[in-house]
Design goal:
Elements lengths: L1 H19 L3 E6 L7 H16 L4 E6 L7 H10 L4 E5 L22 H9 L1 H8 L6 E16 L14 E4 L3 H9 L3 E4 L5 H6 L5 E4 L1 H6 L8 E17 H6 L2 H35 L3 E3 L4 H7 L1 H11 L1 H8 L3
Parallel strand pairs: 1-2, 5-6, 8-9
Antiparallel strand pairs: 3-8, 4-7, 4-8
Helix pairs in contact: 2-10, 6-12, 12-13
Bound molecules: (2R,3R)-2,3,4-trihydroxybutanoic acid.
């Protein structure tokens, strides 16, 4: 009698314990290293999700394109073979064409402007465009203002770019604009870039200081020009069906975790921007701080007219003038 009661109690304990500790594991990936503005983003997200759901959800983090480049990761999220991804908007227009407008050069004045637009009604509306494509876009985050590096020469104005072969993201807006700068564009996934620079397949590339530092491009690039020619957003995407399966409370936990992690991400971008130039100089790069911005803007006159036609002048102005 006593024994069977004990057995029952144990069995019940096991069942209850089993359900109390049921844990769902999800994957999230980035194409850059863990010690970066993107690494801190997904590490914080994983910690926040686990904390907010009392460990019912665990997020496994993958770095350095271990699960593929950004396009492949986004594709995997769309297909549902991977739950989550954190990516630049580089390859995103291939999935959600409405996001193209965010990658227009010289659209944002500074990071404060970009963050205000992305966190405000324009950004919120853009997030809903992901829904019908199989994604739940949790929030915007940040890659930063992109600057040009190359192994050939100092770049101060677009005249210096003529004939330079540069890797670009697989982003149609960037490719069109950079051709306007006179660059010979070579779209390529990020995990291939270091080797391409090292072997001289391309002369240069462009990325925010955060990425240049994290990817150690200083080892394979001599010149850096602070062109700040385009702001590069990041985005948190989750497979839509998987997000929809979460309870409303857990959905909120995931959304809040992404918001919290975005704060850590942006703080790191600020930190990298503040000390990046000194850091990269110390590592041997020749940094051109005063580029001829007006000439860069002017070089895009024709391309910009085309963007205005494509995206609507009013839509571009709405972002430019957002306060
Ligand atoms: O998201 O592909 C790129 O140049 C991106 O900026 C990089 O992967 C970080």
């Amino acid at each position: 009698m006593k024994l069977s009661k004990l057995f029952l109690a144990l069995a019940a304990g096991l069942v209850m314990g089993g359900s109390a500790f049921a844990q769902t594991t999800m994957k999230i990936s980035i194409s850059t290293s863990q010690n970066s503005h993107q690494g801190i983003a997904i590490d914080t997200f994983a910690k926040e999700v686990e904390k907010r759901t009392n460990g019912r959800y665990k997020v496994q983090t993958f770095y350095n394109g271990a699960l593929g480049g950004e396009r492949e990761s986004i594709e995997a999220v769309q297909l549902g073979t991977q739950e989550l991804a954190f990516s630049s908007t580089g390859p995103v227009p291939n999935f959600v064409p409405e996001t193209k407008i965010l990658d227009v050069p010289f659209l944002f004045r500074d990071k404060a402007h970009a963050r205000a637009v992305l966190d405000g009604p324009i950004g919120a509306e853009m997030l809903t465009k992901f829904d019908s494509k199989g994604f739940k876009a949790l929030a915007w985050a940040e890659n930063g203002f992109r600057h040009m590096t190359n192994s050939k020469r100092e770049v101060k104005s677009p005249d210096d770019l003529k004939g330079l072969k540069m890797r670009t993201m697989e982003n149609p807006v960037h490719i069109a604009a950079y051709k306007g700068f006179g660059i010979v564009t070579t779209p390529m996934a990020f995990p291939e870039v270091f080797t391409a620079l090292q072997q001289g397949t391309v002369d240069g590339q462009e990325n925010p200081l955060s990425v240049i530092i994290a990817a150690k491009f200083d080892q394979v690039q001599k010149h850096l020009s602070l062109t700040g020619h385009v702001y590069s957003p990041c985005i948190w995407v989750m497979n839509k069906a998987m997000f929809d399966k979460l309870s409303p409370e857990d959905q909120k936990h995931f959304l809040d975790a992404a918001k919290e992690a975005t704060k850590a991400n942006r703080a790191r971008v600020d930190e990298d921007d503040a000390k990046g130039v000194a850091d990269l100089r110390a590592k041997g790069m020749n940094v051109v701080e005063n580029v001829d911005k007006a000439k860069f803007v002017k070089a895009l006159a024709t391309v910009n007219a085309d963007f205005e036609k494509q995206f609507g002048k009013a839509n571009i102005e709405k972002i430019r003038n957002y306060k």
